[in-house]
Amino acid sequence: MTVTLEEMLVKIKRGQWALADIDWDAPGANIRPDQFDGLKSFMADLVWIENIGARGFAALAKKTDDPVLAEIYRYFHAEEQRHANAELALMRRWGMLSDDEIPEPNVNVKLGIKWLDSCADSASLSVLGTIIPMLEVALDGALVKFLLDEVDDPVCHEVFRRINSDESRHLAVDFQVLDMLGAAPLRKLLVQAGGSLHPKVLIGIGMYIPLLNKMRDNIIGMGLPEEKLYAAMNRFAEIGGRSSGTKRLPMFHVFSTHAKWVVDRGHPYHLLADSMVKVTGFIPGPLQPKIPSWAKELTYEPVNAA
Ligand SMILES: [Fe+2]
Ligand SMILES: [Fe+2]
Fold first, then answer.
1. d(Cα 228, Cα 216) in Å, to the nearest integer?
2. How many CB atoms neighbour CB 200 within 10 A?
3. How far apart are CA 287 and CA 306, in angstroms?
4. Which of 60, 101, 197, 306 has its CA 20 to 30 A from that of 51?
5. Consecutive 10-residue runs of the chain (306 residues): their mean pLDDT?
6. Considering every ligand atom, which ligand is closest to the CA of 160?
């Protein structure tokens, strides 16, 4: 059953929540000492991946001519920021941050943020509209779910229940938009695909490849099976493959093929991706991209819903 964008907007407005709705001091902040370090770096990256999503939606809101879709994207932008802030609040609850400390993301996340910051606004709707759903199924929505198997804290479960219901709406819209993009005439789709070979897009792919393998390493570092990430990535081809419009999008096939390589641990692709993680790991701190100024919007404070 397809939901119209207008109906989706109503659902989104109804689903709004705020950090103030959660009792951050409730009992049960049980983090085992052996999981503290792995969880801390995983959460730090997660906070920033939410911000990558937020930045992507802000760019998408400017790309579409449809006023309802633009408003949906503005809500999604605010929701991703809320996810980041809720995750910061959880980190504070678990004693991982002091006062208003903002955690540092890993270098691959920093490079991804830098790319989005400098290129997202000039990327086409067809490029952004394909990249964002891939990021959402593989990272944004999926990583949060992995934590639920690891962490006992009832507040964490409460937060992620809310985040997951936001994410299910993000995915519904992401894939609906992919389907709409794929309904364009073939000639237009091919011209757009040609435009995707823009150097900025290729640089973006160069950021994305090590980012995924780095997050896989983080998942392993948390003691979780990497197959969880692969199952999440398979969902992109699975969900997109059900829609006739999406299947017409050349970018969808590029990302689906890439996802197949990622989930095949024996594929030579991993030699490239793993060495890219190593090489980027050597970039000295002062040469790494700076945390962007909009990071000042990050706060663990329980502000009210937008
Ligand atoms: Fe999110
Ligand atoms: Fe999302």
1. 9
2. 13
3. 36
4. 197
5. 87 95 93 88 88 88 92 94 93 89 86 82 81 84 79 93 93 91 78 70 82 86 83 87 88 88 89 90 83 65 52
6. 1
Q: Which amino acid is at 304?
A: N
Closest CA to 194 of 127, 263, 291, 274: 127
Q: Which ligand is closest in space to the CA of residue 51? A: 1
Ligand 1 mean position, distance from CA 275 (Å): 28
**CA distance linking residue 203 with residue 196, whole number of Å:** 11
Give pLDDT tens digits for 261-302: 988 988 998 999 999 999 888 888 888 887 776 666 666 665
Ligand showing the shortest atom-to-Cα distance for residue 56 = 2
Tokens 């995924």 correspond to 212
CA 243 to ligand 1 centroid distance, Å: 24
- Contact between 213 and 274 (Cβ < 8 Å): yes
CA–CA dist 132, 138 (Å, integer): 10
Q: Phi/psi at 198 (nearest 5 deg)?
A: -55, 140
* Ligand 2 midpoint to CA 257 (Å): 22
